[in-house]
Design brief:
The chain has two domains: about 1-35; about 55-130. The chain has three helices and no strands. It has helices spanning about 5-30, 50-85, 95-130.
Length: about 130
């Protein structure tokens, strides 16, 4: 493998590892967020109290879903790239194939998370429409 291909592959791996580290940091921070009533909440979003609060929460979940879709697409694109480089019989075939599967798995996880965020957004909109 020539030097430029090694650099591209290493850059991709570093990006994936950095994303994973960032996600772990985010999850740790969210797990530490405790409301005054002792309940744990995710991120900086307190429990909605008014219809406007529920609409704002729905907007945040819609934004989160869009961001997750973007990350899912990035991983799907990386999977396609790795899969295109996985030439049967080459020394790197197994590595590229493994990386492609890894990216496919991450893309699917992000798509599922985006779908859950959309459901949560809709639930918040429903609560806002009920005038709670």
């Amino acid at each position: 493998m020539n030097r430029s291909k090694q650099i591209v592959l290493a850059s991709g791996l570093i990006a994936v590892l950095a994303l994973g580290a960032g996600a772990l940091t985010t999850f740790a921070t969210a797990a530490d967020a405790i409301m005054p009533n002792g309940m744990k909440m995710s991120g900086d979003m307190p429990t909605p109290q008014t219809a406007a609060d529920y609409r704002a929460a729905a907007d945040k979940y819609d934004q989160e879903a869009a961001e997750l879709d973007t990350v899912a697409k990035q991983h799907a694109d990386m999977a396609s790239l790795y899969r295109s480089r996985a030439i049967p019989g080459s020394k790197q075939y197994q590595s590229y194939f493994t990386l492609a599967n890894h990216c496919d798995n991450l893309a699917e996880l992000h798509r599922k998370s985006a779908a859950e965020a959309r459901v949560t957004a809709q639930l918040h909109r429903d609560m806002a429409n009920k005038g709670i």
